[in-house]
């Protein structure tokens, strides 16, 4: 199991869920210090099946090397979950500069594309590739237009790759609403949690269900997704 972006708030829930399910989990990090911090955060959940190492996967070359290393060390790639990205806010589209554009749109879209092209051809037949986006992919957020545009591009990437693959391999799009993570403080009982997202991702990996668009905008949708995906196992 490969989780680029696994040390983030959403990624943490997925890492915990896959480790609990018995998977070998590979999480690339920006630095060894970040790796040590994340292992400490996971506590007893960080067992011998967690593989944390420093690697830059944000370019085509970097992603290719990451996946090749995983194949060499673990024998293959069964599943990928890509909660890659972050939030950007503060400017209307006509106020952005080139640095904003390169960082909030080009860099993130490139990282997703680099990871997909490196991992998908090596994905085992029973595996699943899951792209994670926010609901800004379909609902424009004023002042955060670059994120909305980048997320919409990823949603179309899912549709295109699904059409190109046919039934050859499974690719999911997990669309998230506001997520309760270690970085957020919320008392909203309807807000989806990173743990629920991880549980849905694990269920998708374990199932034989064809890839599809799964909306996880709130806890109820996450619960429904677990039932529908579980029923297909």
Structure in words:
This protein has helices at 9-20, 32-42, 60-74, 98-119, 145-165, 194-206, 219-231, and strands at 25-29, 50-54, 77-82, 123-134, 170-176, 179-180, 192-193, 213-216. It is of the alpha/beta class. The protein has one domain (9-231): 3-Layer(aba) Sandwich (Rossmann fold). The protein has a four-stranded parallel sheet, with helices on both faces. Strands 1-2 form a two-stranded parallel ribbon. It has a two-stranded parallel ribbon with strand order 6-7. Helix 1 crosses helix 6, helix 4 (98-119) runs parallel beside helix 5 and helix 6 runs parallel beside helix 7 (219-231). The mean pLDDT is 93.
Question: Could you tell me the radius of gyration in angstroms?
Answer: 17 Å
Structural class: alpha/beta
Give the overall average pLDDT.
93
Number of strands: 8
Largest sheet: 4 strands, parallel
How is the CATH topology named? Rossmann fold
N-to-C SSE string, H for helix and E for strand: HEHEHEHEHEEEHEH
Instruction: Give the N-to-C terminal Cα separation.
Output: 19 Å
Q: β content, as a range?
A: 15-25%
List the strand order in the largest sheet: 3-4-5-8
What's the number of helices? Answer: 7
The CATH architecture can be given as 3-Layer(aba) Sandwich
- CATH class, anyone? Alpha Beta
The CATH H-level homologous superfamily: NAD(P)-binding Rossmann-like Domain
Instruction: Indicate the overall shape.
Output: globular
| Domains, number | 1
Report low-confidence residues grouped into runs of 5 or more.
none
């Amino acid at each position: 199991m490969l989780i680029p972006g696994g040390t983030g708030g959403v990624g943490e829930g997925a890492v915990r869920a896959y480790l609990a399910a018995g998977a070998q989990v590979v999480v690339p990090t920006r630095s060894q210090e970040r790796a040590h911090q994340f292992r400490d955060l996971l506590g007893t959940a960080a067992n011998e099946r967690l593989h944390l190492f420093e690697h830059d996967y944000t370019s085509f070359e970097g992603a290719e090397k990451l996946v090749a290393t995983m194949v060499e060390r673990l024998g293959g790639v069964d599943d990928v979950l890509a909660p890659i990205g972050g939030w950007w806010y503060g400017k209307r589209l006509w106020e952005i500069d080139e640095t904003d554009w390169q960082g909030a749109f080009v860099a993130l879209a490139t990282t997703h594309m680099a990871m997909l092209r490196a991992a998908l051809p090596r994905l085992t037949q029973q595996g699943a590739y899951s792209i994670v986006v926010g609901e800004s992919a379909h609902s424009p957020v004023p002042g955060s237009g670059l994120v909305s545009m980048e997320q919409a591009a990823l949603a179309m990437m899912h549709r295109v790759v699904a059409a190109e693959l046919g039934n050859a391999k499974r690719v999911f799009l997990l669309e998230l609403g506001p997520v309760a993570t270690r970085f957020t403080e919320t008392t909203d009982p309807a807000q989806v949690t990173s743990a629920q997202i991880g549980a849905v991702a694990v269920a998708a990996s374990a199932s034989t269900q064809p890839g599809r668009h799964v909306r996880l905008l709130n806890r109820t949708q996450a619960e429904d997704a677990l039932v529908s995906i579980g029923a297909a196992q």
